[in-house]
């Protein structure tokens, strides 16, 4: 595959398992929507877009052939204009010649005299997006080759046990990088010219360094540009040294490709950096301000802006922030040591992220703590970023220990995580809600394990409610920080789900006492209902795949509470709503299916319950959740036994009546004959 036509950018290897999109430009509105929805589901795509053309003189037709050859499959966006297009026909013929899998997708109704046979596509099963787009999209993703985002990664990052027993770090997972950002695609005017292709395949991680803003009038523009270019080269070189062990593909672009951030204050610069990230399809943009301080010393204050719209991994550093203290620059632009240290720090965080999302939390922790060994990170403004990263890694190690019923390790690691979050709060000078969110997650996990009896029998769950009340107060404290990133949809959903888990525990496990009344417990349940409705509404409004797991978990908790009050049919409705979410992760699908089996069991529908338990058991095997298989087998056997008992009792009750009904015709017959 060829790389984007920009000789000045520092570009690393991209993923190869791309899908080629063949379409007619008259269908761009529909195709753009499909493109964005598939990319949010982690598919690597390539399509030609005429407003971002390739370099002059490049053979566009050969480029199309090369990209199609490099693709794993082809999506044919079928419409009347598609079937009439010579270019589309050539692409389909090329795909057939190379024996590529072809997936016809109907994006516009065909004319009466047209059919898929016009292009030889009638031999393939097609998907119709014109009648029910959501249902059609789901059918399409079921048959497409799976993107390279492993199920195990989803499980480790979003597993219900890890979440409900302390894996609340989803709310606060700090990564500088790691999301596939939906770029804005402008709809072009129709033109009869041949399409010119542009690269839209995504690296797993996209990083860029923009030209720095000038904070003072007496700062020379050429010096600021030279500093940014040096920073860009060093960062890309540092990332290049770790890309092999990251197990992620990487794109790194220098300021020559991105241009300069614009704005007179931090907020304006942040907005500018956000736009650069979107325009260049990057996950994070490193930028900064070059200015003279009160001593007329030239200084560079590095900053970053991280975006997230499809991978739920950049919650905490989504938005902008400082990255370490300001770097002093001599008259000779001598800041190489500081720039090197700062670029090494970013590279270590990227390395830690790669380990983190592959569930090697100890290795991620080592990478994050490695930042602290660099010169200038011991006691500096901006170290809160590293403190929370370390705290999150510690918390994740604690969550895994909790899943394994290792109480001592869970408590030990949460104690250290709490110290890290407290340090971050003490260091931060800008509004920073993440430490309090992290503290709430750690307190929730500690509340689970304060009672030593829980370690003796992990199936028995009890909570230290004083600790839960502290966790709930910390959620409010996080919101009171006025951290701008808390307004972002994903971060809102994560924070509210964090709150919901605490309210769920209070509603489900708290018992009336001298100090707690039934009315108090009902208020926690009502607050849970309000907050859970907000999560669901946020998902319905945004339809981001990053919010989908939070919405699914919300439906699961709502169904569980409905069962607590004996409202089993309403519970089934909640579980069905969770299972219908487009983007539900495999572990959640398995667990909600099992919970739905519970509701049917308590309704006395043992046959349906047994079928659901068996479905959940098969999911546990297919998805590799082996620890759950014995439980679902036992539940299925219990439901089958209850069904056998109920069937036997029914047969025994019906036997005398059947005998009586059988004898009645004989008596009547005798009477008639007499």
Task: Please tell me about this protein's structure.
The protein is an alpha/beta fold and 674 residues long. It has 24 helices and 13 strands. The strands form 2 sheets. Strands 7, 8, 9, 10, 11, 12 and 13 form a 7-stranded mixed β-sheet that branches. Helix 11 (336-357) runs antiparallel to helix 12 (361-372), helix 13 runs antiparallel to helix 14 (407-427) and helix 15 packs antiparallel against helix 17 (465-480). The chain starts with 17 loop residues before the first strand and ends with a helix. Residues 1-16, 50-58, 148-203, 309-317 and 663-674 have low confidence and may be disordered.
Index terms:
674 residues, flat, disordered C terminus, alpha/beta, 7-stranded mixed β-sheet, single chain
SSE order and pairing:
Blueprint: E1 18-22, H1 28-40, E2 45-48, H2 60-69, E3 71-78, H3 80-84, H4 86-97, E4 102-106, E5 127-128, H5 133-143, H6 151-158, H7 160-164, E6 197-198, E7 205-209, E8 213-214, H8 221-246, E9 250-253, H9 255-258, H10 266-279, E10 284-292, E11 298-306, E12 319-322, E13 327-329, H11 336-357, H12 361-372, H13 384-403, H14 407-427, H15 434-449, H16 453-456, H17 465-480, H18 489-509, H19 518-542, H20 548-564, H21 568-579, H22 586-602, H23 606-622, H24 629-673
Parallel strand pairs: 1-2, 1-3, 3-4, 4-5, 7-9, 7-10, 8-10
Antiparallel strand pairs: 2-6, 10-11, 11-12, 11-13
Helix pairs in contact: 8-11, 11-12, 12-13, 13-14, 13-15, 14-15, 15-17, 17-18, 18-19, 18-20, 19-20, 20-21, 20-22, 21-22, 22-23, 23-24
């Amino acid at each position: 595959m060829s790389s984007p036509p920009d000789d000045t950018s520092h570009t690393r290897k991209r993923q190869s398992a791309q899908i080629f999109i063949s379409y007619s430009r008259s269908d761009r509105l529909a195709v753009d929507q499909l493109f964005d929805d598939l990319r949010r589901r982690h598919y690597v795509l390539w399509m030609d877009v005429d407003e971002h053309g390739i370099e002059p003189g490049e053979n566009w037709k050969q480029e199309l052939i090369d990209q199609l050859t490099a693709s794993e499959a082809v999506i044919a966006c079928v419409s009347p204009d598609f079937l009439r297009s010579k270019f589309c026909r050539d692409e389909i013929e090329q795909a057939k010649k190379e024996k590529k899998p072809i997936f016809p997708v109907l994006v516009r109704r065909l004319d009466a005299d047209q059919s898929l046979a016009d292009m030889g596509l009638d031999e393939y099963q097609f998907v119709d997006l014109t009648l029910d787009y959501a249902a059609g999209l789901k059918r399409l993703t079921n048959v497409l080759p799976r993107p390279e985002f492993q199920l195990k990664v989803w499980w480790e990052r979003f597993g219900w046990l890890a979440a409900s027993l302390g894996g609340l770090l989803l709310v606060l997972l700090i990564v500088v990088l790691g999301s596939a950002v939906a770029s804005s695609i402008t709809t072009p005017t129709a033109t009869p010219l041949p399409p010119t292709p542009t690269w839209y395949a995504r690296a797993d991680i996209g990083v860029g360094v923009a030209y720095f803003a000038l904070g003072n009038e007496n700062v020379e523009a050429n010096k600021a540009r030279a500093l940014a270019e040096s920073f860009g080269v060093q960062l890309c070189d540092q990332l290049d040294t770790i890309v092999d062990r990251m197990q992620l593909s990487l794109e790194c672009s220098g300021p020559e490709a991105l241009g300069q951030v614009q704005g007179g204050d931090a907020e304006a610069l942040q907005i500018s950096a956000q736009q650069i990230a979107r325009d260049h399809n990057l996950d994070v943009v490193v930028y900064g301000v070059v200015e003279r301080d009160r001593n007329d010393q030239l200084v560079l204050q590095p900053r970053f802006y991280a975006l997230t719209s499809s991978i739920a991994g950049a919650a905490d550093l989504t938005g902008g922030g400082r990255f370490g203290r300001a770097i002093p620059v001599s008259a000779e632009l001598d800041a190489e040591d500081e720039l090197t240290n700062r670029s090494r720090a970013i590279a270590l965080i990227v390395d830690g992220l790669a380990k983190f999302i592959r569930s090697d939390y100890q290795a991620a922790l080592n990478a994050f703590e490695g930042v602290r060994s660099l010169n200038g990170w011991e006691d500096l403004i901006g170290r809160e970023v590293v403190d929370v990263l370390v705290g999150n890694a510690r918390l994740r190690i604690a969550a895994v220990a909790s899943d394994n019923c290792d109480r001592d390790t869970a408590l030990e690691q949460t104690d250290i995580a709490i110290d890290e979050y407290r340090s971050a709060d003490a260091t931060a000078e800008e509004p920073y809600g993440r430490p309090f969110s992290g503290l709430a997650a750690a307190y929730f996990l500690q509340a689970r394990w304060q009672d030593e009896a829980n370690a003796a029998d992990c199936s028995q769950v009890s909570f230290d409610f004083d600790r839960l009340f502290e966790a709930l107060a910390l959620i409010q404290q996080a919101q009171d920080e006025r951290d701008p990133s808390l307004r972002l949809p994903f971060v809102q959903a994560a924070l509210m789900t964090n709150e919901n888990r605490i309210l769920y525990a209070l509603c489900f496990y708290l018992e009336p006492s001298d100090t707690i009344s039934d009315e108090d417990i009902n208020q926690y349940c009502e607050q849970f209902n309000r907050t859970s409705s907000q999560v669901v509404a946020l998902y319905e409004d945004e339809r981001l795949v990053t919010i989908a797991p939070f919405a699914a978990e919300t439906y699961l908790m709502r169904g569980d509470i409905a069962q607590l009050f004996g409202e089993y049919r309403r519970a089934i409705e909640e579980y069905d709503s969770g299972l219908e979410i487009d983007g539900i992760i495999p572990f959640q699908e398995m667990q909600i299916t099992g919970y739905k089996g519970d509701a049917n069991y308590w309704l006395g529908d043992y046959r349906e319950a047994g079928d659901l338990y068996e479905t959940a058991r098969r999911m546990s095997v297919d998805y590799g959740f082996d620890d759950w298989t014995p439980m679902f087998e036992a539940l299925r056997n219990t439901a089958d036994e209850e069904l056998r008992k109920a069937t036997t009792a029914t047969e025994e009750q019906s036997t005398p009546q059947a005998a009586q009904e059988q004898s009645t015709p004989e008596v009547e017959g005798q009477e008639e004959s007499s």
